[in-house]
Design goal:
alpha+beta, Glutaredoxin, 4-stranded mixed sheet, 4 strands, Glutathione_S-Trfase_N, transferase activity, Glutathione_S-Trfase, transferase, Glutathione S-transferase
Amino acid sequence: MADFKLHCFAQSGNAYKVAMMLDLCGADWEPVFVDYFGGATRGTEFREGISELGEVPVLEHDGQRLSQSGVILDYLAGQLGRFGAETEAERREIWRWILFDNHKFTSYFATHRWLRHLAEPKGHPEVIAFLAARARGALATAEKRLSARPFIVGDRPTIADISMAGYMFYPVEETGFDLDREFPAVAAWADRLSELPGWRAPYEAMPNGLVPA
């Protein structure tokens, strides 16, 4: 039995953040497929038995069930001794960027991807355009930051990078953002993360929610 179980599906970038962390740490883990597109997270069984929030990721470890990707990343950094803060000042800086990610970076990027690619029916064009503009604004903030340094906080990867990179490895056909062309510093940063030992792409690491695994 694996040390860690991650309730997830491959289309979830938030679940991928945790899968990426587990892979990069060389952890003993296994995915537990959640049929999101079949309504599993909205059902009583999931909400009462797995997470009252009705979302993935959910991590099972040592008799605990943890939800929310930022909380899980922080927990894993403590448990596995990788990608965490080395000082209190660094801890605050890491959390500053994780909160930015949750509020402005992942939130707009993921919602835009959902409405243009995954939702049925697709979102209204004006809504998609609004979300694209907001996502590009957040990407521009990251572009400026990463033009001056290799990683989000300092010269080494941390859970801030792993959090912000959750949706960076999905194909441009899904996201609508050509990072190499529009945000080259962000693209180069994602490449650096993908070169770390143990890294896998989302559709390699987790069960696909739309086709048989």
